[in-house]
Amino acid sequence: MKKLVSGIKPTGELTLGSYIGAVKQYIELQKEYDSYFFVADLHAITKYQDPKELREKTKKIVALYLACGLDPKQATIYLQSENPYHSHLSWILSCNTYLGELNRMTQYKDQKIKDSNLSVGFYTYPVLMAADIVIYDAEYVPVGEDQVQHVELARDIVQRFNKRYGNKLIMPESIVPKIGARIKDLQEPTKKMSKSDGECKGSILLLDDEKIVRKKVMSAITDSDNLVKYDVKNKPGISNLITIYSSLSNLSIKEVETEFIDKNYGEFKTAVADKIVEVLKPIQDKYYEYINSDMIDEVLDQGIKKVTVIAQKKCELIAKAVGLGRQKC
Ligand code: TYM
């Protein structure tokens, strides 16, 4: 069975963007692949996090994973920080990564302008991501569009490493959803819908109640021509709502346009809000059932037990290939 790995940073409340771009794919793919899904808490601390809040957010993501439909019988679910081999491998890979490659990462370039005190961890973040992937010999990595560049870097590292040390690492490939790879902010529809933003009028959170969802969707920025037509360049706001509706109802963009051909924006927005509420309601019900149950610890205990054995074996193989440690006869 082919392997697949992916993770989410616990830096804020999960948004509809992360659901459509990532989690919805996870749920479909877990049936076909040997799947590994983790909470990327080591990636979260590349920017300061309040320790108590970080722990709570980490637990929340696990509860949401389960509530959205990740099935611990099909997929392995764990915390990145509980497996020390991710960081160990990250060091070895960072010694096989060039500064120029990290300088070219869009996420780093964007943040460098905004934050003059970026951590070294933030800079080397994509290398840890490469380690998260190759440590399980994953062939596929389901992600939203913003993470594709990081998977590309992982591919470059794999290629270089294999050339230097023999074919030890599996080449990963990203899987990006055909619809919804970059869900936009409802207030600034040229920007990605983000969970890290403090002010979140433009982001639908998976735990937003019905009233808030309706308010956010009804006040989403659109244009004035009142035509439900997909045109990202000229109608970014309405195109974003079409994408959301299309993904959540499993319809093509064309089918959505046809369904709303003679409807105005008010009617369309109401239908989008109805659809989001319909999808979120069962997720929220399950979330509140799981968040204070023992199930979270049980799933994580089972997950970390399994992945630590796999990761240790892989790290030993890599360390040996690189020439680390003592010669064993
Ligand atoms: P993170 O936590 O920023 O995002 C988690 C996943 O959600 C996707 N996503 C979106 N997709 C579409 N539209 C949006 N508005 C949107 N917002 C978020 C992201 O593309 C991502 O797939 N570095 C990663 C976590 C990570 C990882 C890994 C992923 C660490 N190691 C190894 C895959 C493999 C991150 O910060 O994702």
Cofactors, ions and other ligands in the entry: tryptophanyl-5'AMP
Q: Biggest sheet: strands side by side, in what order?
A: 1-2-3
* CATH-assigned fold name of the largest domain: Rossmann fold
Say what oligomer this is: single chain
Low-confidence stretches: none
Helix count from the secondary structure assignment: 13
> How does the helix and strand content classify structurally?
mainly alpha
- The CATH superfamily of the largest domain turns out to be HUPs
- Written as H for each helix and E for each strand, in order along the chain, the element string is EHEHHEHHHHEHEHHHHH
- CATH class of the largest domain, named Alpha Beta
**Count of β-strands:** 5
The portion of residues forming beta strands comes to 5-15%
Indicate the radius of gyration in whole angstroms.
21 Å
The largest β sheet comes out as: 3 strands, parallel
Structural domains: how many: 2
CATH second-level architecture of the largest domain: 3-Layer(aba) Sandwich
Helix content: 40-55%
Rough outline: globular
What is shown here, in short?
With 329 residues, this protein is mostly helical. The protein is built from 13 helices and five strands.
Please tell me about this protein's structure:
Helix 4 crosses helix 7, helix 7 crosses helix 8 and helix 10 packs across helix 11. The chain is mainly alpha-helical. The protein is built from 13 helices and five strands. Helix 1 links the parallel strand 1 and strand 2. The strands form two sheets. It has a three-stranded parallel beta sheet. Strands 4-5 form a two-stranded parallel ribbon. The protein is globular, with a radius of gyration of 21 Å. The chain folds into two domains: 203 residues, Rossmann fold (3-Layer(aba) Sandwich); 80 residues, Tyrosyl-Transfer RNA Synthetase, CATH 1.10.240.10. Tryptophanyl-5'AMP binds next to strand 1, helix 1 and helix 7.
